[in-house]
## 1
Amino acid sequence: MGRARERGYAYFLYPPERPLTETAYDRLATIAQHTELGAGMAVAMKDLEIRGAGNLLGGEQSGHIAGVGFDLYVRLVGEAVAEYRGDGAEEAADVKVDLPVDANLPVEYLPGERLRLEAYRSLASATTDDAVEAVREELIDRFGPLPPPVENLLAVARFKVLCRRYGVTEVALQGAAVRFSPLDLPESAQLRLRRLYDRAVYKQAVGTVSVSRPRQGGMGSEPLRDIALLQWCGEVLEQIAGPGRS
């Protein structure tokens, strides 16, 4: 331990004949990469990412943040804090989007774990198009032009806003089709669905609509993904559940 002007040192030893686990390597690499004065916060954030947040308001200190993802983690934190404060404000409906979209905040674009966590938190709490656009403008202002994965992440956030507008809580890829649920379609909307998408399937009992995932070009081309797929999904919702289409 350092004293006054004397710098302190710590030596970490491990048996050379035994390979390090991935977690152990991550911990040592994090310490080695953050040796400057005041780097304790960066080390703590990496530790949080590795082992998880544990019991948010209790004494347990174990968990797996990577297993639930940043969006869910941030929502759980918000719910726990609101419950602790006695705040009964209604939370926006959670929307699950399970589609082939490369959406994330790359380390190369946003290097700090704390900064990435803040950005994920801002997007998780954005429930309007204006709120998503505000996050976009802030990212550009602070970190420069957006790489494709970040543009995709913002597109997912905007798509979730649209889903909430129509009461849809899950959009997922199921084989060669995209499934939307729940959707309660009147007879006129069912007829329109069959006219616009000849292979679409509507299951009224469970409130799901399945529409074949389109391709980028002609036969044999790759199926849509990323922003193009999100835009197509948005068009499907607008066409079968939008205003004036009941």
## 2
Amino acid sequence: MATILTTSHKLHAEQQGQRRRQRQALLLVLPLLAFILVAFAAPIASMLYRSVYNPALSTLIPKTAEALSQWDGQSLPDAATRASFASELQALAQTRQAGTLATAINRHYPGATSTINQSARFLRQKSDAQPPEVAAQWLMDSHADWEKVELWRAMRIGSQKYTSNNFLTALDLERTPKGELQARSSARIYVPLFVKTFGIALSITLICALLGYPLAFYMAQAKERTANLLLLLILLPFLTSLLVRTTAWIALLQTEGLINNLLLWLGWIQAPLELLYTRFSTIIAMTHILLPFMVLPLYSVMRGINPDYAQAALSLGSHPLGAFCKVYFPLSRPGLQAGALLVFIISIGYYITPALVGGTDGQLIANLIAFHMQQSGNWGLAAALGSLLLFVVLLLYWIYDRMVGSGQAQLV
């Protein structure tokens, strides 16, 4: 009996000690968890929320927004709805907020800015507390566009506090008056830009792999002194500002830059080439910046590969190329996969380099997101574009994990 009690006390003490160690470990990682929550989870949640939350019109013209939610959208709204909007627009004009309303409506109906501003100036000169019929007529007299049902439909769409319109716009889609989805009738720019962004990212990843794999292979086979020197040269660009490295490419690729002058001096071209502000300049500059992210994972994996494996294959009669393809390359594949994943994901969201050297042809989706955040002020559309980019990257990573991760686990 005493033995059983002693064993029970020991087990209880071990469990208490284990729980205490778990609490201590949790306290050690709490700062990291807090940092992840503040720096990553909260901004992503805010971005997702902003992509569907659209309070601008419902806050500025609440009565009109409520009335338009009950409107059938087929003919002009009734006089009461138009009068309600006229009175709210008149109040906004007196507080100098009509411009904010014009900007919000213009996102759904291009050209509405001039209509709103002209009507606001017209109504500001009128007296308050007029019968609804008079206020509605004043609104119709202020601008001819108020006779267009499409403008009122755009206001109804924009007055929805929670909406999927930002995602539809980001996918170059729109809704018909009946609520059906269709391709946007105006210019379609977002889906082609997404495709171009992923195409450029894939091109950069392939170029980095073609350049980085032989370099990492040579470093892994070289003497330690030579490998350390090459590693220092690879890490040296990280000591220089990204802006400086990108600006250096501007000096190299411009019309009167070093590359064009050299080609002209050699007689290979008769006129300067347009190298700067193109897709080519974006790819070459980003490849230079992201190449270390390919070399370093490859080198770390290759340094751990035992050379006796390839030697054993050769001693058994394998051709050197066959030994490399069947023995060395599969063992180095984890480094190649890690480097490719790093380069691809980083290049998708790159902003500074395409903005400086890409011009119109070399812009990526990140540049358009920055435009909507900094210039157009359309935070909802910017958040929707960022959310779609996040979803696509997560989808690609899931596909990568399903296709490569399991196979790699079996290899190991």
## 3
Amino acid sequence: MDATRSEAPAELADAAIARLGPREIALSGCWTASGMAAVSRLPALADNNAAPLAIDAGRIELFDTAGAWVLARLLQQLNEQGVAFELRKLPDRYAALLVAARQHMADTARPKKAGPRSSQNPSPAIARLERLGRATGTAVEQALALLRFIGETAVALAHSLATPGTLRWRPMLYNIRSAGFDALPIVGLLSFLLGVVVAYQGADQLRQYGANIFVADLVGLSMLREFAPLITAIIVAGRSGSAFTAQIGTMSVNEEIDAMLTLGISPLDMLVLPKLLALLVALPLLTVFADLLGVIGGMLMAQTQLGVSIDEFGERFVKAVSVTAYLVGIAKAPVFALIIVMVGCFQGFRTRGGADSVGRQTTRSVVQSIFLVIVGDALFSVAFSALDL
């Protein structure tokens, strides 16, 4: 904010400080950004008597924020040296600018007051407690924001199901292909290897007791109830959940989300619901595929290591694994799909800043998705145990 123009006309002199007497100086010229080159400090005083220094500012022709800042610094130096002074004849329109500059300088130099229970050098225990409090507050805030996001998505889903014409089928089919069909090779390979590992680890123990045939029980129950749903959800969380976050986060950074809102397009309807409905379809099917490949891997390892033929394995498998055990594993898949989509999209919408924020939120999305999937699987185990399933 300038009291007058920031550039002085050519006929006006630059800012200057002249000594009129032992205890009197005069300020003159243009105290503006373009006229301050010759002003750096006050002239040396002739003596150190107690009389106040008279500063005549009546000859200042132009004055702006640069001049106010320099003059405020000069007056601050006098205060620090203990020199009393009296500023005279400064026009009112300039005085207000000088007061603002001195006030800002004082506010900048003033140290922040410590709270009643804080100190400038807190002890390590207090510092750790403070960090724990901040982390807890951040976690609670993020959990509440996630719950709000889930609620908004539930409302949008109910509205879309009530009016099927508003569903966006093309994005949904695209997500079924990218999150489901394209994930078949990696899900199938890891499930097959996991079945091989389970049968191989159990082979030595079962052989000691002559219980080779029970490898079918081990592979069937472990794969269908626990390993296949869990490994499929973890793979999809790392593969598709991160892609959801990166896509929405990039759109948020590029202000495409704001553009959608300006056009009256709901980001939830466009970006979240197609992914949610697609993964609710794709993840159970991927789990069935993982069940099949895991059992095949265990069957081949049982034939190789334990001498259990495919016919014997299949006969025992049908007796050991009930339909309930199979459905228990399938029932986990929609819940895992809900967790992956909600966390992935939620972290995408929370992206702010630039590309580094996209990477940070993507990492956070994968970690939180996998963590919540494992927690959900543990809760399922407790619930099914209580229900004797």
## 4
Amino acid sequence: MKSSYCGRELEAKQTQIGEEAMTRRERLIATFEDREVDRIPVSTYELDAFDNERLRRDSGYRRLLDRVEASADLFYPWGPRVVSEGLGHFLTATEEVVSERKIHEEGEATVTVTTVRAPKGTLRQVRRSVPGLDTTWQTEHFLKTDADIETLLSIPYVPQALDCSSFQEVDERIGEKGLLHISLPDPLCVVAELFEFGEFTVRAMTETERIERLLDLFWVRIRAYLQAILDAGVTGVFRICGPEYATPPYLPPEKFHAYVVPYVKEMNRMIEKVGGYSRFHCHGKIGNVLDSILETEPHALEPLEPPPDGDISLEELVARAGEQVVLMGNIETRELEFLGEDEMRCRVREALRVGRQASRGFVLLPTACPTSMTLSPATERNYEIFLEEPGVD
């Protein structure tokens, strides 16, 4: 068996414990290609960018990032540079469409107001961030009324010009430490985030035709974006985000199938065709939509939130999906932040015990990364345990 990654031929090989260890890149590729590995891969989820200067200002993160770079199985983030002037959400500025972005302070918060003037009206979005937290709140969404939807639909589509020239350089820099990781939204991700979430769920249940019109609109743009990346020779691991917006209890399983499966299945086929690997990213309660997820034929499924955050145990996931996809995740970020050392060690050991039973493979992975810009000593120690238990060091 042979597989091609980034133009390099990789001979399939069976590596047993006790023989010469695989490189981290070889280990991840073997996992995605359903071949034997020397140990379960371990990644730290969005802490793979070890050159992250914002986090490196904190001594705890700095130590953790150094350790991750030295030993974890990296999914290093990469994305193309958008050359054309963008408005976000796969919209491009034209002579008829202009945007204005204003930033001001409200107490400790930084508020960004974006206004888009289009042929049929004006759209407005407000985002808010605060010091010390690596997250942003959208306090006003672009789409609030029927008129806003018509305004958005009036914006002409101009394909974004992308610069993928940095791919080869970054891939060579990562080398045998891991694989490049490209995040992509599915159409549902883009559409859901244009609305306040309660507004979206009501419309998704009562205005199916209008929602599907928006999904189809952005599918054309996402497909062109993905194809441009693939045509540039980019490959690696593609994380597809957005399906979680249609999981129960937000929407019933039949809506999940209609709004997710046709688009993500085609994205996975496009990625598979060039030798890349797809990760189906879906937080929340996936038990009743697992069959729909598997229908899209991804290489991997993550982050596998256990109950009570999710609704399906790792044991059941192994039984229902362990022969079809690589299972990735199962360690909640809150566990890394708040469990004691003994509890953390037991939690990791249990995930490893069950994960080893997945015949298509398992990757130990947190469900997210901490949002605090300061890493507490307890959380740092739990990350050390997370890396130590599978034998990473």
